[in-house]
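Batch manifest line 129
LIGAND: heme C
JOB: complex structure
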Amino acid sequence: MRQLRIPFWLGLLIAPMVLAQNLNYQQDPAWRVPAEAAEKKNPLAEQPELAAGGKKLFTRNCVECHGKSGEGLKKAADLRLPVVQAQSDGALFWKITNGNPDRGMPSFSRLPELQRWQIVLYLRQLSVK
Ligand code: HEC
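JOB STATUS: finished
ARTIFACT:
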């Protein structure tokens, strides 16, 4: 039994986007961040120098899917895109913590909390080029 029924015309519209190797990253509308989590402030916001450590953590844990510049390989999100950068620090932290395993984003709750915030600091630098 199929769970998801997509009208044929919509399939025609979506297929090229999916096949285009993430040039058109589409966010999962079902991956919603609880409001309370989105409001959390980054406790390291006043220590931008810690982003360097965030970069190391990113290289170790994230580059294999998101690419060296965060551009997103295969189906992984391009983390430089406005749809990603427009989200609050708390929202990104929550997504990194919980992941979206059904769509290939693992949970990183095993990393210490401050390391996850450090990664968020670094993600903010990806948009600046
Ligand atoms: C095994 C591959 C994989 C790894 C490793 C991975 N990601 Fe992801 N990530 C994904 C995929 C795939 C998505 C898109 C999920 C979706 O479509 O909902 C994603 C989505 C995201 C998003 C949400 C983008 C949005 O649209 O809001 C963030 C933020 C993110 N990843 C950060 C990270 C960080 C930081 C790391 C390392 C700590 C990491 N990811 C490691 C595959 C990965």
